[in-house]
Amino acid sequence: MIIVLSPNAPADSAERLLGRIKDAGLQPLHMPGTERVVLGALGDERILAELALDSDPDVESVKPILAPYKLVSRELHPHDTVVDVGGVPVGGSALAVIAGPCAVETQDQLFASAKAAQDSGATILRAGAYKPRTSPYGFSGHGPAGLTILREVADDLGMPVVTEVMDTADIDAVADHADALQIGARNMQNFALLRAVGAAGRPVLLKRGPAAKIEEWLLAAEYLMAAGNDQVILCERGIRTFETATRNTLDLNAVPYVKSKTHLPIVVDPSHGTGIRDLVPPMALAGVACGADGLMVEVHCNPPKALSDGAQSLFPAQFAELMRTLRPVAAAVGRTL
Amino acid sequence: MIIVLSPNAPADSAERLLGRIKDAGLQPLHMPGTERVVLGALGDERILAELALDSDPDVESVKPILAPYKLVSRELHPHDTVVDVGGVPVGGSALAVIAGPCAVETQDQLFASAKAAQDSGATILRAGAYKPRTSPYGFSGHGPAGLTILREVADDLGMPVVTEVMDTADIDAVADHADALQIGARNMQNFALLRAVGAAGRPVLLKRGPAAKIEEWLLAAEYLMAAGNDQVILCERGIRTFETATRNTLDLNAVPYVKSKTHLPIVVDPSHGTGIRDLVPPMALAGVACGADGLMVEVHCNPPKALSDGAQSLFPAQFAELMRTLRPVAAAVGRTL
Amino acid sequence: MIIVLSPNAPADSAERLLGRIKDAGLQPLHMPGTERVVLGALGDERILAELALDSDPDVESVKPILAPYKLVSRELHPHDTVVDVGGVPVGGSALAVIAGPCAVETQDQLFASAKAAQDSGATILRAGAYKPRTSPYGFSGHGPAGLTILREVADDLGMPVVTEVMDTADIDAVADHADALQIGARNMQNFALLRAVGAAGRPVLLKRGPAAKIEEWLLAAEYLMAAGNDQVILCERGIRTFETATRNTLDLNAVPYVKSKTHLPIVVDPSHGTGIRDLVPPMALAGVACGADGLMVEVHCNPPKALSDGAQSLFPAQFAELMRTLRPVAAAVGRTL
Amino acid sequence: MIIVLSPNAPADSAERLLGRIKDAGLQPLHMPGTERVVLGALGDERILAELALDSDPDVESVKPILAPYKLVSRELHPHDTVVDVGGVPVGGSALAVIAGPCAVETQDQLFASAKAAQDSGATILRAGAYKPRTSPYGFSGHGPAGLTILREVADDLGMPVVTEVMDTADIDAVADHADALQIGARNMQNFALLRAVGAAGRPVLLKRGPAAKIEEWLLAAEYLMAAGNDQVILCERGIRTFETATRNTLDLNAVPYVKSKTHLPIVVDPSHGTGIRDLVPPMALAGVACGADGLMVEVHCNPPKALSDGAQSLFPAQFAELMRTLRPVAAAVGRTL
Questions:
Q1: A246, A261, A290: best mutation site toward chain D, by most D Cβ within 10 Å?
Q2: Is residue D166 within 8 Å of residue D129, measured between CB atoms?
Q3: Would you tell me the crossing angle of helices B316-332 and C316-332 to the nearest 10 degrees?
Q4: Between chain A and chain C, how many beta carbons pairs sit less than 8 Å apart?
Q5: Is residue B21, in this structure, part of any structural domain at all?
Q6: What is the DSSP-derived secondary structure letter of residue D35?
Q7: Per the CB < 8 Å rule, is A244 touching C241?
Q8: Same domain for B151 and B54
Q9: How far apart are CA B256 and CA B287, in angstroms?
Q10: Do B195 and B103 lie in a common domain?
Q11: Number of C-alpha atoms within 13 angstroms, CB side, residue B228?
Q12: Using a CB-CB distance cutoff of 8 angstroms, which residues of chain B are in contact with residue C274?
């Protein structure tokens, strides 16, 4: 429920109403607004109705939040959220460029890959210490040792870092080493993980599941926000369709659609979205052209030797060229790089 | 690698060869066979090659396991596995009928639903204490209290019980109360959960993810088996397609296909597979007709009052009628009920 | 609009009302009913409203047809339609078994294949003289010469025949040689073809398009019926999904769903629905178990030599075995074979 | 088969070899090349092998065309094809902007819509006289009368026009009135139509089918080219997926992928690709950013009154704004508008 106070409501009316909402067992929300005081209340619709807030003398209007997601919705929070990842803003006019190898393999491999990415303009480092793999016999990351390397390289280069967490049992360790936690596509509806990561006090990058409708994705973000975390970045990384020429079908429709429904920032991952190195640069340009707040790109110092995702990882020179061609496109849509 | 010993190999050759395999850092497997002694070896292909087992005098032939899944494959294990769920076999000639409500709501609701199911022929009880819900505001189960009710009702009726576990942190509690653990569709590629459940010492029912290819599903089962669990039941519950008339598209093609590829039993869940109560009985018959080893059906004592999945839950009388019509179909394909 | 007359309406009231409907520029329908006289009216909803049929003294009630398809809907026509294909009923208690090779290759090949199918119980012959092929360089059928062979073999064996027509220009030729015309999956929304075939005066077998929602499929059938043809058979042959282990995903959910929505008969094609020979028999059983009115199966006298669809064509002995195992399943669901 | 002649092959060797190819019953192709003489041969692989062209003294090398499509492939024809639509090039550095209403409704509606589109920069007019509609009761276009209006308006404004043809029987009439013929998405595998349109002597715009893999789409284009037409424009208009928030999922991955495989130009239709007016402009920018050779956009003088596709048609002011924002994006990727 969104509650707009009357222009001449007394100064303490917001606090009074939030108290009434809380006393009824509902979740009260204070929503920053420039012109009017706007409050929110989440919970059982029948209790909300019994409160009869619309007949309170200080209330001008009450309207329901129509979307199934509430905290995530632009109805409740009209202004864009800017997420701070270790000092780098994601969501404002400057594009966020998250780059790095699929996995932490060795200190040298990570440093070389990260340095190359940073030299070309990447502002946030990505690399996995815990890797979800379809087969139990695939390389699944170095775990804690990978986290240590990741932090060291990030600190050496002065880059904040985002990395995936796959198990509630690992959240503390990952949060100790990373500036933002990633929920992978296959865990988008791992609700236990969402609740626990939401409570971990770190920004979260939430990848869209390969079979997730946009509404389900925003409800997964709602899990994070409902657990107290308002620093959520969405990441479109392709959906599963009948097309087999590409690894996934990058659903760029989702970018402007999501931006119309939520205040959260969205970045595009053309690496997983295509699975083919040569398609990454054009799809990165396309993602920015349709309004993404940033990119997440796999760059490896030596892709043919990569332990995972080599086929979709850019060579450093390709990434440098991508950044060069991206600049005028970003400018054309009013973004800086 | 599958290693077939010579007919005249000495009695201790199996042990000797398994020792060589183990010493090389590979996983040795002793595979029961009626005519020949057959061994298996899993691990790095190059090390396997170096062992040169095919030149061992006691070895008749060595062939690779072509499927990406190994322990799950019929190549390695030609005979059907029968899983024992608290004394009820799943996978033999008798069909397993797993039934019960979506969720544990109250002791009375569960008892009434389970009793009705059992009276009509259900042999294993299902009900969720932990419910994955798309929205954080949906009913997500009673957790530990639900487990207690579940065990009590199951014991009262003398039924074994299967129930979902969603978080590695809950595995012990669920394993203490249930005869088999369910991995839900949305967690099919929650690899941390798969590894931990695989090590929990309980039979596992592994639902197919809504966007999982059959090969990925069998690889998820491989995670369970690689963690030491050979008591795995597969459950086809519908995939996500463009069709919106039904909740999911029940992929019955998967039943005979899976049975040709793996020795593990497979059951069909027509409740989630259709999402529409009236479609459950015909699709249950179809599932059995094409070779499923059992069914998993939602039955609720009062579906219109169900806290979740009411639209796809059968009324007790519908379930009774389903069991009645199922009997001749089962007989027609050589199964008992 | 469905118009139910009062029990005591005069005998000529139906005629009078149909006249009013026709004069208003709408399509009048006389619907056979055992207890009440029921009329239908199709056309512009506003004109229907202006007619105010519900205030006519002989009318008991007027209700809209909610489905977007009208003539196809069970709302308008509650009783099952039985289509007559050259003397063989499709839609009654006896299962229709349509079998034969993918394509007419030679007189010998067709005769051998058809004879084998008939000997095992097939009642209608299928084979294509015009073959839709993904590549322009594939074998696309013998055209008119194929039609001649098809008719000769069918007459020799005393079987009616169904064959595909792909072009409005060929309808007359095909209708001269076949007992029923098939609209192929890729032409399901070839609306020019639907209109012309609907007017051709032959029963039609309408395959579901690989990406067609059930509602779109029923609307394609509505095209046929709106063109004056009430002899329409639906054929589920699999939809396109992300799964690549099988050629298509046979959507058997569609069988009971379609039967609840329409009076038209539905048959299942497990050959295209799976694309894999060994999956055809179990899926044929499943199709019958969930309520299909018949089967359409590819049988070839020598599948490895087939010019098209060899991998999914049954050997004659496999088809014979399928018919043998089908009999008790059919009996179990109250159908005869 | 691609045949490269030796640098010192005599001048008449090409003619001689083409003669040998033709005499063997194969299709000979003379492919323009700047440095070397390159020939092609299409047909039965075994006959090609028997010709033993690689042992001809004037031949340097012979290599197979690996793609299933041949004439369409870049292997055979490395340079970009530029299609001429009534004087407007599609495929060069200048972006083609095809715009207009979904359907020809009236002369006034078409003129107002086309004029607005042209004033903002559209270079080719689109509008349908024959409209494929899911329901037989929908507005299906004015047919021949619509063609007349279309031609008149196009001539008044000096714009070439592209319009859909749905039936082989209508091809002559449509070709008489249009500068290019459109094959609609639902007819992409209407092979009779493809063959006939391929022979009609007009450029063709071939929409991708909603469930067509890229390879199938290129094979549909091969049908057109094999029928003698080398003026083919591909149009990506969205595919059918599980996502229901948008009408289709615009598959922009297909743009750079297709351009790597074929020499044919490709345009993007963000109107059908999204189905939502407000998503059209950002997706148009994205389409150009990833390399499309043009756009196809629905613009209507009064979308709320449109007889079809109103929800996805731009208001004239929106289209003007789109053209304004498109200009710098086009420039950023080296295209002119």
A1: A290
A2: no
A3: 140
A4: 6
A5: yes
A6: S
A7: no
A8: no
A9: 10
A10: yes
A11: 7
A12: 253
A123 contacts A100 by C-beta, under 8 angstroms? no
Dihedral angle, C-alpha A325, A331, A334, A337, nearest 10 °: 70
CB contact under 8 A, C286 and B282: no
Q: What is the reported pTM?
A: 0.94
Residues 6+ apart with CB under 8 A from C5: C13, C14, C17, C36, C37, C38, C39, C58, C59, C60
Q: Tell me whether residues C211 and D216 touch, CB distance under 8 A.
A: no
List the single residue in C with minimal CA-CA distance to D170.
C192
CATH of the domain at B19: 3.30.70.1140
Question: Hey, what amino acid is at A136?
Answer: P
What is the domain range of residue B113? Answer: 83-332
d(CA A71, CA A75): 9
CA distance C116 to B130: 55
User: Are residue D279 and residue D316 in the same domain, yes or no?
Assistant: yes
**HSE on the CB side for A120, CA within 13 Å?**
27
Sign of CA dihedral D316, D322, D328, D332: negative
Angle between helices B280-289 and B316-332 (to 10 degrees): 20
CB contact under 8 A, C226 and D186: no
**C-alpha span between C151 and C131 (Å, rounded):** 17
Q: Does B244 touch chain D (CB under 8 A)?
A: yes
> How many residue pairs from chains C and D have C-beta atoms closer than 8 A?
82
DSSP element (H, E) containing A215: helix A214-226
Q: How many domains are contained in chain C?
A: 2
Tell me, yes or no, if C249 comes closer than 8 A to chain B by beta carbon: yes
Q: Is C3 exposed, middle or buried (0-12, 13-18, 19+ CB in 10 A)?
A: buried
> A242 at the C interface (CB within 8 A)?
yes
Q: What is the pLDDT along chain A (337 residues), one digit of tens a residue?
A: 888 898 888 888 989 999 999 998 888 887 766 577 888 888 877 888 888 888 899 999 888 888 899 999 998 888 999 999 999 999 999 999 999 999 999 999 999 999 999 999 999 999 999 999 999 988 899 999 999 999 999 999 999 999 999 999 999 999 999 999 999 999 999 999 999 999 999 999 999 999 999 999 999 999 999 999 999 999 999 999 999 999 999 999 999 999 999 999 999 999 999 999 999 999 999 999 999 999 999 999 999 999 998 999 999 999 999 999 999 999 999 999 9
Across the interface, whether the CB atoms of A213 and D249 are under 8 A apart is answered: no
- Do C29 and C129 lie in a common domain? no
For residue A128, give the nearest of A318, A314, A308, A317 by alpha carbon: A308
Alpha-carbon span B34 to D24, nearest angstrom: 59
The answer as to whether D167 is a domain residue is: yes
* Cross-chain Cβ contact C243/B251 below 8 Å: yes
* Cα(B9)–Cα(B329) distance, integer angstroms: 47
> Are the beta carbons of A282 and D331 separated by less than 8 Å?
no
Half-sphere exposure of residue C26: CA atoms within 13 angstroms, side-chain side: 24
Determine contact: D228 vs chain A, CB below 8 A.
Answer: no
The residue to which tokens 């669901």 are assigned: C333
Based on the number of CB atoms within 10 Å of its own CB, is A201 exposed (0-12), middle (13-18) or buried (19 or more)?
Answer: exposed
> Max alpha carbon distance in chain D (Å)?
69
Residue D127 tokens read as 């509008």
Alpha helices in chain C (DSSP H): 13-23, 45-51, 107-120, 144-157, 171-177, 191-198, 214-226, 254-261, 270-274, 280-289, 316-332
Phi, psi of D93 (to 5 degrees): -75, -25
Backbone angles phi, psi at B45, to 5 degrees: -60, -35
Nearest alpha-carbon partner for D167 in D201, D129, D136:
D129
Q: Does residue C92 lie in a domain region?
A: yes
Residues D150 and D254 in one domain: yes
Hey, which residues 117-176 in chain D have their CB within 8 Å of chain C? 132-137, 140, 166-170
On whether residue A318 sits in a domain, the answer given is: yes
Give the integer Cα–Cα distance in Å for C149 and C155. Answer: 10
